[in-house]
Amino acid sequence: MSSQPVGVHVGSGLTEDGEVADDGVLARAAEVDASAVQVFLADPQGWKAPKPRPDAEELRAADLTVVVHAPYVLNVASTNNRIRIPSRKLLGQHAAASAAIGAAGMVVHGGHVTGGDDPAAGFDNWRKLFERQADDGGFPVPVLVENTAGGEKAMARELEALARLWDAVGEFGAGFVLDTCHAWAAGWDLATVVDDVRAITGRIDLVHLNDSRDEAGSMRDRHAPLGEGQIPVDLLLEVARTAGCPVVLETPGDGPSHAAEIAMVRRALG
Ligand SMILES: [Zn+2]
After folding, report:
1. What's the family (predicted)?
2. Is the whole model's pTM more than 0.90, yes or no?
């Protein structure tokens, strides 16, 4: 049997009061027989720092690969001080909170620059993020940069941009998350994507295995359950297999549908 952990994004798994929900992270993982989970540590659309979790010790002790998804509002590439500086701060807070639950890594979107900005400034801001942190001993968990679906002047949408980003952050040990829906939306060839990415980054640390509701190259980010979107399911499963790393679904669905998808991926991994 393959040793690649397979699982699903489960949200925060906490109630509004910060208590462990009935369908908390470990309960959800058990329900769908996941060996990996991805969690939020704070509102993904907000700037609030994560609070200590009541289930931190259980998460650290669990026989489960846990990854954290940082908030979507973060944009460490931004040339706007009022976005970039709070983004760095929030990222640092999330990294510490990720370490507190024993996370294997923290997923961050590549971000973008805007308007008349030179993308070079965005790549440089990524480099500075790691440089500053290196002075403090580095991030306490690996920072995993995810490719994005669309957006002008994005740092990790086109392979050419990814190569420039890696020139900036590769030396600091940055990791990479391959999202299949985003790759499809950006027009990447999923038949060769694992090799294409590895030729640039040398690594793939996590696969976000998602089907897409839209056609290839659409630049749209609408995830679909495996086999229910536009991406041939065999192609998706082959990406998961060849990437050889943990696989997390971010597909719409409920416990039973996620359990079925996880079982299908496991069968494909052999
Ligand atoms: Zn993703």
Report:
1. Belongs to the AP endonuclease 2 family.
2. yes
218 CA distance to ligand 1 centroid (A)? 16
Distance 2 CA to ligand 1 centre (A): 23
Tokens representing 75 are 């944009």
CA atoms within 13 A on the CB side of 165: 32
Ranges of each domain in the chain: 51-62+74-245
CA of 250 to the centre of ligand 1 (A): 7
CA 133 to chain centroid, in Å, comes to: 20
Amino acid at 100: A
Q: Which pair of tokens denotes residue 47? A: 């700037």
Tell me which residues have their CB within 5 A of the ion that is ligand 1.
179, 208
pLDDT, one tens digit per residue, over 103-143 is: 999 999 999 999 889 999 999 999 999 999 999 899 999 99
Neighbours of 211 (CB within 10 A): 25
3-state helix, strand, coil in the chain (%, to 5): 40, 15, 45
Architecture of domain 51-62+74-245: Alpha-Beta Barrel (3.20)
Question: Amino acid identity of 102?
Answer: G
pLDDT digits (tens, 9 = 90+) for 169-178: 999 999 999 9
